Fold this protein.
Amino acid sequence: MPTSVVNINVHGIGSATRTLDPGEEQVWVSVEQFEQVLDAAVGRDDVRITFDDGNASDLEIGLPRLLERGLKAHFFVLAGEFGVPGRLDRDGVRELLEAGMSVGSHGWAHRDWRRITDAEAEQEMVDAPRVIGELTGKPVTTVAIPFGSYDRIVLNRLRKAGMRLVYTSDGGKARPDDWLQARYSLHRDIDAEWVRTTFAGKASPAVQARRIVARRVKRLRGAP
Ligand SMILES: [Zn+2]
């Protein structure tokens, strides 16, 4: 097993087929950008590819290009959005599974988990994995946090809900077995240079230090 992994996070690819939320277009990439990233991932056992938000482009654009390259990915879908135009429906999720992909939870309604009630937390972190698990046929214990927004309370809730692997959007490399997994999000400005440095895992010492401090703050914030 590699000592560190580069986790990549994909949101949307190509032209969006639904109205995007404000700012969401920042994390959509072109087919060419997406292919460039996949090409760099071929033959790398230290690279994990994830998809958030359950967009229709996961299936229509993402899946065939993964299969062409013999790559696998983990798709984090929204239990409350199946069949909404522009999103995956249940058949789409089944197709991903049949193609050998993994499916985890991105919650229910894409809420900010730092700003939800106890009842909403139950729906986001307990009901959503259960509903997705009914599709996958096995318990869902892998989760990606919407907006990468977490604090101590969010992490405690996820632990209590039995989640075994939690993906953030913190950036930076991760150790393969860590409970909390940092990811690099693709965004509309990525280019060949971004792909090269990200896959080399080479941030400058200053950037690395900033990331470590930011993660520590997020884990601890929310204390009474
Ligand atoms: Zn999301």
